[in-house]
Each structure stands twice: as C-alpha cells, then as structure tokens.
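To whoever picks this up:

The nightly regression suite flagged Sugar dehydrogenase as changed. Nothing in the input moved, so I suspect the structure step. Input below, exactly as stored in the fixture:
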Amino acid sequence: MLLQDKTVVVTGGNSGIGEAIVLAVAAQGANVVVDFVAHPEETSSLIAKVEAAGGHAIGVKADVSRPADLHTMIGKAVDSYGRLDVLINNAGIETRTSLLDTTEADFDKVVAVNLKSAFFATQIAAKQFISQGGGGLVLNISSVHEDWPMPGNIAYCVSKGGVRMLTRTAGVELGPHDIRVVNIAPGAVATPINASTEDDPAKMKQLEAAIPLQRMAQPSDIADVVAFLASGRARYMTATTVVIDGGIMQGSVGL
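Regenerated output under the current build:
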C-alpha cells in the first residue's frame, strides 16, 4: 500500500472531498486523523467505515481558524500514532457574495477558514516534521478559482489565491528540510458546497456543457489523486499546483 503506517491529518474531513480523502488514504494503509467542527455523528460514521475496511482513524474536533485548535489537532495525531507524515488542508467555506455585497464578517470568516488555517496548520506541521526528522508533506486543497475569477464569490477567490501563493512560497522555504508543499485545484465537484447548482437542472446543464469531460467531478476523482500525491511516488513535486478540473479552465470562460 502506498501509505502504509503513515499518519495523515485531514482538516474538514467528515464530508465532501475531505471524507473521500479520508477513505482513499485509509485504503492505502494510512492512520488518519479526521478533523471536524460540526456533525460528530458523521465523523463517527466515517471512522466506522474506515475501521470496517481494516483501517485506522480517529476524530478530533478542532476549529481550524484557531491556531490553538490546530496545535491540539497536530498534537493528537502525534500522541495517537507517534508522528505526523502528511497534513491535508482541506477545510473550506464560501459566501457566494460579490465585492459590493461582501461584509467584513463574511470576508474575515472565509479568509480565516480557507487561508489563515492553511497558513498556521502548515507552520505547525512543518515544525513537527523538523523536530521528528525525515521530512514531510503538506497538501492544500485549493480551487481552480485560485487563478480563475468567479464573479459573485470574491472572498473565496481571494482566499484561494492566497493558498496558491502559500503553497509556492512555503514549498521553496521548506524544501531544504525535505518538506514538500503541493496544491490541488479541483474544478466543480459534487459536494455540499455545490448543492444549489446540482439542484438546478438549468445550471447543471450549463456547467456540464462547459466541462470538456461533460460531468461534474465526484469527490473520489479528487481523493484518488490526493492519495497518489501523498505517496512516495510523487516525491519530486513541490511548490506547485495540480489542477483536477475535467478541462473546464481550458474549455470555457468563467461561469
């Protein structure tokens, strides 16, 4: 297995892309720490699935926008499994508001969850990697909207643009410590964050027409790539973004 006995932390791990990542890395032998901030019953159900398949997972309730909670999360991973090997910064939110309508509270919340959390989780994980030795990996789940404007969702785009530059700069800074930082930029994925689109046949028809592969991604489409990137087979990749979008950035202007 590609991740046998590796310890992997997944933020926002009990739904959507995060849940699929947990299942994918556990299937490759990883010990998984599932971060969540709500719906503990979903976390318990996910852990039961992992264990039923012969894997190992624990849940940790942590608000990723709070660095103190991130310290607790990383500490729990090390206490439970002896070390940290991979951090996956997956937690994310959006407001679907324009520049003219976004409030200060909207902006602060999106940036705190999407960007501030990734920054400080990367910092905390990097210090753990250095102290234990042997290098490590940070995977950031960003979005095609780190580079592709999405009118009407500006705070989200700004936060994801920051994640892209965090990945590039942290990857350069941490390379001498054998710590890699890689960004994953999904396109449209069938998760709760896109439920309003999925519920509107006209919007779905427009979206699918804009995607060269003619379908919205499933969370497993992203998770399978994440599991590969987390393995030693992607050992020479850092400070870069892997786009998983079905070709939408090449096949359409912004939706």
